[in-house]
Structures are given as C-alpha cells and as structure tokens.
Write a structure and sequence with these properties.
364 residues; two-stranded antiparallel sheet; TIM Barrel; alpha/beta; eight-stranded parallel beta barrel
Length: 364
Amino acid sequence: MIKNVFCANEISMLGMGNMRLPTREDGKIDFDKAAEIIDRLYESGVNYYDTAYVYHGGESEVFVGAALKKYPRESFHIATKYHCLANPDFKAVFEEQLKRLDMDYIDYYLIHAIGDNTVDTYLTNGCVEFFREQKKLGKIRHLGFSFHASLETMRKVLDFGGWDFAQIQLNYLDYLLHDAKAQYEMLTEAGLPIIVMEPVRGGRLAKLTDETDAQLKAAHPDWSIPSWAFRFLMRLENVKLILSGMSTVEQADDNIKTFSEAEPLGDEDTELLFKVCNEFKKQISAPCTACRYCTDGCPMEIDIPVMMEIYNKFKLNGRFAAKAIEKHEHSAKDCICCGACTEHCPQNIDIPSIMEELRTAAES
C-alpha cells in the first residue's frame, strides 16, 4: 500500500468512503458485508475512513465506529462532517457524532458540502469557531471543508482562513471539462493538502462505452477501467488521499491492487485518457453522482438518481429508453417542479427541467 505524509501523519493514499455501503432489502446497512470490506482494506494498509452525519440516514457513523472498534484507535483515522441543512445545531450534531462513533475524538472534521447557497451560513453561524475550539480541546485533530461550489465561493472560503485541508470532487472528467483543475490549482497555491472525493464520479467512470473501454484495455489489458481514474489522480502532486466508496469486496480488491502498484499515468496514457474522455463526454447528459442529497426533501418521494440514470440512457439511446420511468411508482411524471431537490444538489443540476423533459419524452 502506498503511503505518504499528510498533515504530519502516515496516511494511506486510498481511503474508504462510507456513503455507498452494501445494504439489505430493507435499505439498512448490511453490517456483515460492509464490515468485510473494512476488514479487507484495513488488513491491506488502508487507515482512513470517511463518513458523515447524513450518510445512510445517520447509520453510517454508527457502523464505522462499530466496525473499527476491534482495532487500536491510533491505528486508523476517522473523518466525518457537519452539514447545516441536515441540522443547524452544530453543537448537538458534534456531540451526537462522538456518541455514534463511540470515540473521544475525530481525526479529520469537515464542514460538509459547501455550496454557493450555504457558504454564508457556514461562515457566519459560528460553527467554524466552535469546531476550532474543539480542535484546541483535542476533540478534533484537523479541520477542513468539502466543496461543491463556484471558484468565487472557494476564494471566499480560503480568505476566511484557518483550514488544514480541503476535499474536492476531482476526476479526469471534471478536470478536463469543468473547473476541477482550477480548484486544484487554487488550493495548491493556498498550500492546502487535497483529499479527493468522487474519483470515479459516483461509478460513472467505472465503465464508459464499449468503444472507449476497448481503447483503454488495448493499452493496458491488466488494468481495470476504474483504475485509470485513480492512476490519473496519482499524477497530481497535491492529491494526498483519494476516497473510494466501495460497495463490494471485489471493488475493494481492485482498488487494493491499483494502489499497491501505485503506478501513475504517464504522459502517453494521459493523452489517451483525455482523448477517450472527449469521446465519452458526448454521452454525458446529467452529471448525477447518486449522492442522494436530493431525495429526502422530495414531497413526491421520487427516486431522483434513478430518474437521472434513465435520463442519461434516454439521451444516449433515444425516447424509447425514457419509458423506463413507467416501471417506478414515483417517477418524473409525478414531479411538481417545486425545486426542493435543487437546493441540495452538489452538482447544481436543474432537476425540475430534466424531470419535465423526461416526462415529455416518455409520453411521446
């Protein structure tokens, strides 16, 4: 397992995200299957585990704390987060998180998913000052933020100061086609170490198209398609840790192989990847990562990420694919365009417009 010094601690470059854990039929975390993933990673040298107050309806923090209980506390690092839209009472949230995790301190604490619509709340409601005080008390070791907003907002956050690290959505698609490269450069210039989330864009880059996958496989038959995304990030000097949300042991094993080899992309392979990305982007319509932040507030109980997946297939394969929404009890046809979902979307997707287009296509 590749190691590097991050915030004066030996941290594995691969970290486990705990937002997409395996679940049972009732939607609850399948503890045995999820714990098997953690055990496999821990035994392979992974020592960074990321969760949040809102993941799996609050169950993720409880699971992570319980699954790691058998290991020495100083042998791993825990990251969790405060989201102002989930519960504005940051003091109560923090105490609840310590109880959920059953831990005395949190190694890496983050202001969660800073957006253009939440940044002012975060910077004025007193939460940052409170968490800095917890850092002085030893209950937080390092304080940072995760980010889903504009470059202007990032500048505002950086000017606020006092951060130890930053977590951003970074992958070759966002680096090449969106502003992830500018975010990376801004944080690097500010001297903040970077943790990467969504390296495979919520699984969107785990399989591209048959044609583009074939090009990558021809170059390196023994590399998995997801490993290309990780190897690209290994090129970037200020990427100190890469989070991966693993739902199966097979995914964990593939990641362990990739990070044990620790072979970044060379210039020729990067050129090929960018060529493939430009071909693939033509088939990307809604940049949904299935984070599910949008679903809790939907008054019509629509499974929005499922609708986004259908929408992308419709844009790729034609109107017939849109009729797949009819298989769902609550679908795009039920959308009332209230906009409750858009407030919570880190990708700033105009969800109501997509629902309208999908409904029209399905009915035509």
